[in-house]
Amino acid sequence: MYVLFTVLASLLFLPVLAQHFFPYLIPDALYIVRIIGNAVKMSRYQRKKPFYTLLEYFLDQVKKKPDKPFIVFEGRTYTYLDADRESNRVARALQARARLEEGDTVALFMGNEPSYVFMWLALGKLGCTAALLNYNIRSKSLMHCFSCCDARALVLSQELKDAVKEILPALREQNVKVLVLAEQSDTEGIESFQDKINQASDDPLSTALRSNITAKSAAVYIYTSGTTGLPKAAMISQERVWVASVILSNAGVTSQDVIYVNLPLYHASGLFIGVTCAIERGITIVLRRKFSASQFWDDCRRHNVTVIQYIGEIMRYLCNTPKKDNDRDHKVRLAVGNGIRADVWKEFLHRFGDIKIRELYAATEGNIGFMNMSGKPGSVGHPCLNKQEPVRNSEGLCLEVSKGETGLLVAKISSRSPFNGYARNPQQTKEKQLQDVFQKGDLYYNTGDLMRIDEDNFFYFQDRVGDTFRWKGENVATTEVAEILLMVDYIEEATVYGVKVAGFEGRTGMAAIKIKEGKQFDPVDAFSHVVNYLPEYALPRFIRIQNSLDVTSTYKQIKMKLVDEGFNPVTIEDPLYFLNGQKKSYVPMTAEIYSAIESGDIKL
Ligand SMILES: *[C@@H]1O[C@H](CO)[C@@H](O)[C@H](O)[C@H]1NC(C)=O
Ligand SMILES: *[C@@H]1O[C@H](CO)[C@@H](O)[C@H](O)[C@H]1NC(C)=O
Ligand SMILES: *[C@@H]1O[C@H](CO)[C@@H](O)[C@H](O)[C@H]1NC(C)=O
């Protein structure tokens, strides 16, 4: 039930529209009118010279409604004008400290706070690109992410200083300016930056600083766990920012709405739906550091929130909170996000009242997206088969799945729906592209997502393929976790995969390992190692110790078998361990632990 929503200047998909949704055009007229309106608007922006970026649009919003609250955060309100002035200060301080030039990149390593948005605006004013680091990553991954987009400077918030100290020698080797958002810093090599911001002038910056920006210029780098290896920086161009910034408009959000943002701003959903879409609509953002199920509705009530954003987990956590008399006492009318399960959806509506849910699908770096507009079907992008790799016919072309079957979602790459690839990673960029899909020589973007289309062309997300799985809204690259495990001296081999757990979206991490001859598994040491090196969501919750390796199958077959076998100690003969946070150790897996996990008594 997804209707295509991105597709720059949707003119491109008019023929597709006619072909696929003609019967539904009339009932869905309002949505189609909005999309076409936005498409026309965008093609107008595109023709402007220089390119009319979202930043210039923000500056026009500031002129139109300077006093409108823009960000509400922990008891403080910043108007559109405040944000403009504050970002002028930040831009000037950045200019002075880091000598930035148009086209340079600065990495942000910060949690959700208004400064995040000011930084982003400031970099736009300098014609620079922001690289948005995930604040959960550490050590080797952090250094890798930082390095792969050639950033000149790193801006961090005070609470992440320890993580940066760990990689400081490597940063200094690369001559990187490291700036902490604090009034002072006692660490050599980390300069205080908040004091410099406070002292800087808030006069507007010359547009000449960004005069060379075009539709194709990099606006942000967002990190994604693609199919293999360490995270990759997906380049989001200025025109892609626009495409993403009309999602709320397409979903029917008006300039009177108030949006509640608690997803991390380093992710596309937090940044685009939460911030750039809000700018596009000229609305107020109620920003939170982190999602809190217990505070959620109180926040919504206190700030008259009308639009919320979600990932599947959030909706489930909200449904799991104790029922209250005032559950329906709020003004939320719309929820936009992805990953909600049908049963949670029903329960959510039943409990919290009449809220329209707009489920959408889009990959950060991809060139395709859909939105579920209340039961109206849509389809674009041709799925071809099958489980891990596309099935090809005798001519080497992909087979299209039939209705009802699950297939891999791919989307044609063209000048109107380009795939910008990953910074300094041509190999991975190439791997995300599929050639000879329906015709010799054609080129498609491989989303890595399995979808099913039903009789009415409604899309249903099924799973991810390849060497990633999704857990708590984050993609986990199995090879990255395996590399971390292999750092342990007694582990000879490690295969990492995701397993399904009853009651959860996505999959949680599991590793099958082989211990070196004459060595032993040390559950306490293994625990502290993974906890030190991996973010919470990527931890292998189960470890399976294998002595003999299956040599008759391919690696992929072995992995699929492991996934299917899961973590049930009754059916698996190998020693199994479970990561126990309280005991700070892996503990032997038992039938009791297994059933407590399946029944939800043990929280993962
Ligand atoms: C814009 O590009 C021109 C030509 O490439 C260059 O001379 C000029 O310095 C650039 N402007 C800025 C602000 O970088
Ligand atoms: C929320 O709405 C009520 C009634 O419309 C109004 O009295 C109140 O001031 C509003 N609160 C905020 C924070 O805007
Ligand atoms: C789309 O939305 C409708 C109701 O708004 C819902 O019944 C349906 O299950 C949704 N479909 C998907 C695939 O999410």
Short description:
With 604 residues, this protein is of the alpha/beta class. The protein is 32% helix and 24% strand.
Write the layout of secondary structure elements.
Layout lengths: L1 E3 L9 H8 L7 H19 L6 H11 L4 E5 L2 E4 H19 L6 E5 L4 H12 L3 E4 L6 H9 L5 E5 L3 H13 L3 E5 L9 E2 L1 H6 L18 E7 L7 E6 H8 L1 H4 L7 E4 L6 H14 L2 E4 L8 H7 L4 E5 H9 L13 E5 L3 H11 L3 E7 L6 E4 L33 E7 L13 H6 L1 E3 L7 E11 L5 E6 L3 E4 L2 E4 H9 L4 E9 L8 E8 L7 H11 L6 E6 L9 H11 L10 E5 L4 E4 L2 H8 L6
Parallel strand pairs: 2-12, 4-5, 4-6, 5-9, 6-7, 7-8, 11-12, 11-13, 13-14, 14-15, 24-25
Antiparallel strand pairs: 1-16, 2-3, 9-10, 15-16, 17-19, 18-19, 19-20, 21-22, 23-24, 25-26, 26-27
Bound molecules: 2-acetamido-2-deoxy-beta-D-glucopyranose (3 copies).
Describe the structure in your own words:
With 604 residues, the chain is of the alpha/beta class. Among the domains are: 53-240, Rossmann fold; 468-599, ANL, C-terminal domain (GMP Synthetase, Chain A, domain 3). It contains 19 helices and 27 strands. Strands 1-16-15-14-13-11-12-2-3 form a nine-stranded mixed sheet. The longest helix is centred in the first third of the chain and has 19 residues, at 29-47. The chain is globular, with a radius of gyration of 24 Å. Mean pLDDT is 84; it is low at 1-27 and 372-388. The structure holds 2-acetamido-2-deoxy-beta-D-glucopyranose (3 copies).
